[in-house]
Amino acid sequence: MMDETQVAQIRSLLLEAADAIDRANAIVSTVDSDDRALLSAPLDEVSAALHFELLQKLYLRYPGFAEESEIWNGVLM
Questions:
Q1: Residue 76, beta-bridge partner list
Q2: How many whole angstroms separate alpha carbon 49 and alpha carbon 56?
Q3: From CA 61, how far away is CA 43, in angstroms rounded?
Q4: Exposure of 7 by Cβ count < 10 A (0-12 exposed, 13-18 middle, 19+ buried)?
Q5: Does the predicted model carry a pTM greater than 0.85?
Q6: Whole-Å CA distances, 19 to 1, 6, 25, 73
Q7: pLDDT at residue 73, as a whole number
Q8: pLDDT tens across 32-53, in order?
C-alpha cells in the first residue's frame, strides 16, 4: 500500500498531465482539419484513460485525496 506522500505525488503528477492534455487539446482545436483529425482522437483517448482509469481508481482506493469537484459517489465529474 502506498503512503500518503506517494499518493499525493502521483495525484499531483496526474493532474499536471491532465492540465497539459487540456492545453494540447486547446491548441489542436485551432489547427487545420487534417491535423486536428490526426491528433484529437488520440488526445481524447489519453484524457479519458487518465480521468476514468487512473485518477478514478486512485480516488476510489484513497478517497481522502479526491476533490469534491472531481468525484462524487465513485463517479468522476
A1: 71
A2: 9
A3: 26
A4: middle
A5: no
A6: 27, 20, 10, 23
A7: 46
A8: 999 999 999 999 999 999 999 9
3-state DSSP assignment of residue 66: coil
Evaluate whether 70 touches 77 at the Cβ level (below 8 Å): yes
What would you report as the CA-atom Rg of the chain, rounded to the nearest whole angstrom? 15
Q: Where are the domains of the chain?
A: 4-76
The residue assigned the cell 485518477 is 55
CA distances from 1 to 20, 32, 48 (A): 28, 46, 25
Q: For the chain, first and last CA: distance in Å?
A: 26
What secondary structure, in 3-state letters, does 4-43 show?
A: HHHHHHHHHHHHHHHHHHHHHHHHHCCCCHHHHHHHHHHH
